[in-house]
Prior knowledge:
By secondary structure, the protein is of the alpha+beta class.
Amino acid sequence: MNDFEKQILFEDNHLIVINKKNSQIVHGDKTKDNSLVDYIKDYLREKYNKPGNIYCGVVHRLDRPVSGVVVFTKTEKALIRLNKQIHDKLFTKKYWAIVRNAPPQKEDTLRNYLQKDEKQNKSYITHNTEKGTYAELKYRLLAKSEFYNLLEIELLTGRHHQIRVQLANIGCPIKGDLKYGFGRSNKVSSISLHARELTLEHPTLKQKMTFLAPVPEEPLWQFFEHILG
């Protein structure tokens, strides 16, 4: 089994679910680095001895410095059906985030309007409800270490850098996230945000499925995963 195959959390005729590393890109961009789409196509081409073009549908994305569960489809029919689930808010996504500062409350719902600056590739909280886009998430404090806090976040909307900017706005920038106010970078080019859990309805079987992504193999992540069992 090669390194990429170890990232596969689930695979059938319709879906392939990956535990993304925090340095990988989901889809090709201007860096021209290999993306998960590239890896998936190469894997499918080799495993099933498929000549020619390989289909790989991108259901959703994670920012490059973020790790965790990402779903792709092997058929266009599956992609259309999962896109409809996202539109109908039937996807459930939960993230883990490591922050230095404890949040004001142990659990809360954050509601803001966000405005994206394309040039900076950054989002800001705005009070202009006409220009901003509504963003909502729930968080709760899961665990503490000597210096850090682990939060679980449930996304209720999917906006650009939503978790990063909304947590920074309550004084809890994510560890390593220089863009949103954390004091220093992580040793690897990452931020301590992990897409931990994703629940969906299988596009053909109509069964509810939940995928859980193991955390990165880094000491602080491993500590929190261990104490939570």
